[in-house]
Design goal:
By secondary structure, this protein is mostly helical. It contains 14 helices and two strands. 67% of the residues lie in helices and 4% in strands. The chain has a two-stranded antiparallel sheet with strand order 1-2. The longest helix has 29 residues.
Length: 392
């Protein structure tokens, strides 16, 4: 959660330092237009939102985060060689420190985490917290390790890259977050799929991601009732609630398919606080049925695409589809080196997929994570693809 103030302070410092140079002008103009339209539409939806005040506040927050991200990415594109090396060294140190803190947290029995949670909330927490307390941190660290590992590999520091990679894999496997396992699979697929970047590959990746932004609600509309899916033996109990949420959200999307319910209105959607009683067979094959209460929509849909459709409607989802279509060629298009294509492709796909199974898309810490990833990958791009011009 500390990423939000870290991001804000970094962006403020860069903005003051680079004000005369107008560092934000170095951000790609095509993306600037798309992002401005998304922020503008998010603000506009507050006029018909179920919670107008919250929608307007969240839209303003989105606009500020977006501008700060544009400033950071613009500054990253204007770094000189010395600045690029400094960013790379700092990122490497940060990733190593993050992994060390994770190990310390495990060895200490999560006592440090419990103390920090107690200080934040003012309440006393159990001496030992569940390992799930590290889920968000491990996911973020796993994402941020991608450009660092690519940098080490290109620099010929193969042993260091291998050791850091193995430590990262061990950390992600030790965590209980499904998102980390998904990220590992994505990294492996990116290594195989993006080894030979090309224009057609970039267009294809963009088209695939854009199609997800449009077609996901069609797929979730075919989900069975919660009780039917509860009988699927292959589905983990912990994952079933996602299907219940997605089914409810899809039904609400169909009520306002074009304009949506308003920016960040998921918490105020009618019926979202209602409970669904589902009977699970536990343990599997025992014949014993246990009732479990699942809230139909707790906090957010746990799927970025459904959240776009629910809150911003088809108009907002279409804007995000255009954004994703543009990101594909930027990530793995013509002229990219293998290292840069694998790094950028893994980040674009990884963030998209993780956003589709976890986290609220508008959560400030997650927005800051995505922008920091974009800035750091942009800063290291000249190291990963020396033949590429800075404008690319």
């Amino acid at each position: 959660m500390g990423l939000s103030p870290l991001f804000a302070l970094t962006a403020l410092f860069v903005l003051v330092h680079g004000w005369r140079d107008k560092v934000w002008m170095a951000f790609p103009r095509s993306l600037s237009v798309i992002l401005a339209l998304i922020c503008g539409w998010a603000a506009l939806t507050s006029f018909w939102a179920v919670d107008p005040a919250r929608s307007m506040f969240s839209a303003a927050q989105l606009g500020l985060n977006t501008f700060a991200g544009v400033v950071l990415v613009g500054a990253a594109r204007r770094l000189d060689n010395q600045g690029i090396r400094r960013v790379g060294a700092a990122m490497l140190a940060g990733i190593v420190l993050g992994m060390v803190l994770f190990v310390v947290g495990l060895v200490s029995g999560r006592r440090i985490a419990a103390l920090l949670v107690s200080l934040e909330s003012g309440d006393s927490y159990p001496y030992r917290l569940a390992i799930q307390v590290f889920n968000r941190g491990v996911t973020v660290t796993g994402l941020m390790a991608v450009p660092v590992l690519a940098m080490l590999w290109v620099q010929g520091r193969r042993r260091a890259a291998s050791v850091a990679g193995l430590l990262g894999v061990a950390m992600m496997l030790a965590a209980k977050a499904l998102a980390t396992k998904v990220l590992l699979v994505i990294d492996v697929l990116a290594l195989v799929a993006f080894r030979r970047p090309s224009r057609s590959m970039g267009i294809g990746l963009g088209a695939f991601l854009a199609s997800l932004a449009i077609l996901v609600p069609l797929g979730t509309s075919m989900l069975p009732t919660p009780q039917v899916s509860a009988d699927w033996s292959f589905l983990p109990y912990s994952s079933h609630h996602r299907l219940t949420i997605w089914g409810f959200v899809t039904a609400r999307i169909q009520e306002r398919p074009v304009l949506g319910w308003g920016m960040d209105s998921a918490r105020a959607i009618p019926g979202g606080e209602d409970d669904q009683i589902v009977y699970f067979e536990y343990p599997r094959g025992s014949g014993n049925r246990l009732p479990v209460t699942e809230q139909k929509l707790p906090l957010h849909p746990h799927n970025a695409v459904l959240q776009w459709w629910l809150e911003l409607g088809g108009v907002g989802a279409l804007l995000f589809a255009v954004l994703l279509a543009r990101l594909g060629p930027l990530a793995v298009g013509a002229g990219r080196s293998t290292a840069l294509a694998v790094c950028a492709g893994a980040l674009v796909v990884g963030v998209t997929v993780i956003s589709s199974v976890s986290f609220g898309f508008w959560q400030s810490w997650w927005q800051c994570t995505m922008w920091l990833l974009a800035a750091w990958a942009t800063a290291l791009a000249p190291l990963l693809s020396p033949s590429q011009t800075r404008d690319e």
